[in-house]
Amino acid sequence: MGLPNASGDLSTEVEVDAFRRLFPLRFYEKHLLESIRPDARPLGRARETTIALGAVASANGSALAKIGSTTMLAAIKMEVMTPSLETPDEGCIAIDFHMPPICSPIVRPGRPAEAAPVVAKQLSDTILSSGMINLKELSLVSGKAAWMAYLDIYCLDADGALFDTALLSAVAAFSHLEIPVVSLNDDGKIVLSEEQGLSDREPVNKEKRKINLSSVPFSLTCVLHKNYILADPTAEEESIMDTIVTVVLDSSSQLVSLQKPGGTVLAYTSAIQDCIALTRQRVKELQKILEEAISGMEVD
Amino acid sequence: MEVDREDGRSQNQLRPLACSRNILHRAHGSASWSQGDTKVLAAVYGPKAGTKKNENPEKACIEVIWKPKTGQIGKPEKEYEMILKRTLESVCILTVNPNTTTSIIVQVVNDDGALLPSAINAACMALVDAGIPMKHLAVAVCCCVAKSGYVILDPTKLEEQQKMKAFAYLVFPNSVHSVLPEGSLRVEGEPIENGIITSVTHGIMSVDDYFYCLERGRAASVKLSDFLRRNLQQQSTDSSKAG
Question: What keywords were assigned to this record (chain B) (predicted)?
Fold first, then answer.
């Protein structure tokens, strides 16, 4: 079997699927020359995105987000705890991201995926530093009781752009979150009103059932290859082209985070500006999709 | 805009830099890097035979182990390992020794701000000491954006966490001294050393603040490149005298 020559004549002798597996970069470059990708998307377009709120009935807030095939399930459980001494009137959010073996053939049970703790930390940094949630809203009784929100995100299918989908599902879950009604019982402790079954007890937080979300962050991951910028890569694209840039913007176009962890391609100012412009467009799309999902729930 | 910094530095002033190579004798390469009070030790073992399970055997593989000063290894350490690994993979020439693994161990000796940039600088110096083939060096700086919009370089831990609203770690290739004429090494009209290898930001800043950080970072990376060049040339003449 001779080596294929530079003009890729082998493509006439080999089937498309085999060529795709044997020479993935050349397969992609043939498409990029025509400004299109193998799944017929133009370079700057993200995959089809859907959000389904209330996917987990037993959780206080939950959402299932899909970008293309990448699927993430986020769920929030609220628990009452005593706030710390330094911040007596602030609640707390604990964010965890799991990649169970169902999501990808690379992840095996007992060997946690390398990407999981990294995405978990980036999510946690982004959500807490974006100021989306004012922790003071999670306070119940100053110094004595506050809410602890446990946000768990499970990756059900890992097909590229994990951070984008995880952030979208987290934001959707918080917008669906309904804080349970609680009241003070005789011992001065906070209990859930339904448990007590006493309707004459004064609920502590009857009015505040939903959290106010200000400056919601949305993100877009792009892959740089020579002069091309591909928005929203699939897992195959991420594995062949190793330069990944993730831009997170909030609804007022402030830069929440710009991550570019290494990569063969050096990013010059023009490439960064293009990525930020693509992200701005994507933020508008995602805002619309989220609003439609929320209004869809309210009709029900 | 005059800025009052605790240690009396100006906006664009870096802390005193110190770097020494070949401090650990068992490791194939080692370096210690300190910026003010932040001190990081890096050691390189490699190339060793074989790659890890999911890695491409046609290229050399780089493995990074990050050891914090105190405490157990958790998610922040894993994130640092991933960023360092990808940065060094883009700097090393991976096709020279295929199917090998080079391990880089980073030990934090003291953390007083700009920890990740110091670690990247230390790791590069350790790779040079070990003789691993590289395309260029990675020069890392940290820029902080204050609430009023001015940018300071190389913050201390106090400045990073409390006083500034956001910071960015930026890694650029080192400056090029070339015998070729001025315009021939430009890409898209910009010199190679303006390209960003790695960028990690934390906190909210406006897009214009970020581009301002990039400018400041590039200027600082030129100063750091000069320091690295002097340091490496001086140490290589020292060792040739000894041998």
Answer: Exonuclease, Exosome, Hydrolase, Nuclease, Nucleus, RNA-binding, rRNA processing
pTM of the model: 0.91
Residues of A in contact with B89 (CB under 8 A): 242, 262
Averaged pLDDT for residues A82-99: 90
CA closest to B135 among chain A residues: A264
Which chain A residues are Cβ-neighbours of B218 within 8 angstroms?
Answer: none
Of the pLDDT bands very low, low, confident and very high (cuts 50, 70, 90), residue B127 is very high
How many angstroms away from the CA of A80 is the closest CA of chain B? 26
**Alpha carbon of A275: minimum distance to chain B alpha carbons (Å):** 12
Structural domains for chain B: 17-179+192-238 (3.30.230.70)
Q: At what angle do helices B75-91 and B115-130 cross, to 10 degrees?
A: 40
Instruction: Say how far apart CA A130 and CA A214 lie, in whole Å.
Output: 9
The answer to whether B196 faces chain A, any CB pair under 8 Å, is yes
pLDDT value at residue A207: 57
Residue A152 has pLDDT above 70, yes or no: yes
Whether residue B194 lies within 8 A of chain A, CB to CB, comes out as yes
User: For testing the chain A interface, which of B75, B175, B192 should be mutated: the one with the most A CBs within 10 Å?
Assistant: B75
Are the Cβ atoms of A268 and B86 closer than 8 angstroms? Answer: no
Q: How many residues does chain B have?
A: 243
Number of Cβ within 10 Å of residue B178's Cβ equals 11
- Does residue B185 have a pLDDT over 90? no
Beta-carbon contacts of residue B189 (< 8 Å; ≥ 6 apart): none
Distance from C-alpha of B100 to C-alpha of A254, rounded to nearest angstrom: 43
Of the listed ranges B30-44, B122-136, B190-204, the least confidently predicted one is B190-204
